[in-house]
Amino acid sequence: MSKTGARLAALELPEGCELAFGYGHGWEPLGPELTVTRAEGPEVLEVDGIPVIDFYSQFLGRNAADKFFELMVQRYGFSIAAPCAKRSLVKLPVSCDLKKGSIRYFPAEDMQGKKVRLIQANRVSLIEGARGAARECAAAVPGRKPDLVFMVSCCSRSHILHSRENDEVDAVR
Question: Who has greater pLDDT, 55 or 1?
Fold first, then answer.
């Protein structure tokens, strides 16, 4: 396994089968690029010298203490520019330690010194992300209808889509 937590599965395809891949997350960037100035592995304590809890509080409201993590985890994360520069890797908060003043992100990797951007999701953008991934996949095998589609949607998406989870599947269709 690499340090970024990426996994690879080797598939032996039957003769005549093609494999295509599409990727789209639908989280949209907000504001400028930031630097993680203090982290302990995947646990971030500061961005641009600002305690990470204070950083998020400016978006969630200072009175959000009781529901801080619930509000954040459903809508906000960080993105890291991927090596190909046309893509970004999504880092979503998975736990929050208000006493320590830290937020842990997944997929886990050392966040110290990383250049990140705040990202926000909404129902429309998530569905468009799925639609974009399907288009990318279809473009890889033009004129052919797939026999099988394997779609991965993380649990954070279901928190945002709620009763509209099937809209994401419909968009891929």
Answer: 55
